[in-house]
Specification:
single chain, about 230 residues, alpha/beta, two-stranded antiparallel sheet, 7 helices, about 30% helix, binds S-adenosyl-L-homocysteine
Length: about 230
């Protein structure tokens, strides 16, 4: 656990955002196949209700994606858990990770709560500004950049893990190139309304192995930046 994560009173939650409701989500994630206790613990710790509009806070611990404005969504908790878990599979111990698509900042915060050095890139300035406030108020140390994430963030790489949280028809070579030897990339790949979650590992000799983690639906990975 990241010792920097000191929870403020509003992060503890009441009623539909209480610890009991949050524990129910953890049970559900366990039942649906999430095994890594560190990941479950990070999800238990990060207050998802602070990453959505107040009007949606009561739904924050349901296992569903929710709108965050600008036509974007905060991913379903199961998907966040599965992508995060993939980074730790087969005894892999990542240190430095890159996320493409900061959105609400929730996935980045879960990664930071695991003690990882997190870098995240978002193309919509308005979303990034709000996410940065959340990182600050939760005391999480996340480095972020307003840019088109399809170019990655080569200056700070290579990365032990890369998580792409927007769907594209094909894998982005620039991102695979920024993986360190032994590093894992997780990305939704496929058509706009249905993608496969792919897990790629760059072996020590540079060859790439891949696994399909199942069907998912993400908002699209788009080019360029907006305000
Ligand atoms: N990880 C987010 C989920 C975000 S939804 C969370 O935890 O809330 C996907 C995000 O990817 C959106 O915010 C969208 O604006 C962003 N995105 C799409 N294409 C992008 C690109 N090329 N570079 C950076 N961000 C991108």
């Amino acid at each position: 656990m990241n010792p920097r994560l000191r929870l403020q009173p509003e992060a503890i939650g009441v009623g539909m955002t209480s610890q009991r409701v949050r524990d129910r989500l953890i049970e559900r994630l366990r039942e649906t196949g999430i095994r890594d206790e560190r990941v479950l613990n990070a999800i238990r710790t990060v207050p998802r209700h602070l990453f959505v509009d107040e009007a949606l806070a009561t739904r924050a611990y349901e296992d569903t994606a929710l709108p965050i404005g600008h036509g974007q969504t905060i991913s379903q908790p199961w998907v966040v858990a599965r992508m995060t878990e993939a980074l730790f599979e087969d005894g892999h111990e990542p240190k430095r990770v890159l996320e493409i698509g900061t959105g609400s900042g929730y996935q980045a915060s879960v990664l930071a709560a695991l003690g990882l050095e997190v870098h995240t890139v978002e193309r919509i300035g308005d979303l990034l500004r709000v996410a940065r406030k959340r990182f600050r108020s939760l005391g999480l140390n996340v480095r972020s950049k307003h840019d088109d994430g399809r170019i990655g963030w080569p200056e700070n790489g290579p990365y032990d893990g890369i998580v792409v949280t927007a769907g594209a028809p094909a894998l982005v070579d620039a991102l695979t190139e920024q993986l360190a030897p032994g590093g894992v990339l997780v990305a939704p790949v496929g058509a706009a309304n249905a993608q496969q979650l792919l897990m790629l590992r760059k072996e020590a000799d540079g060859t790439i192995s891949r696994r399909d983690l199942g069907a998912v639906v993400f908002v699209p990975l788009l080019s360029g930046t907006i305000g």
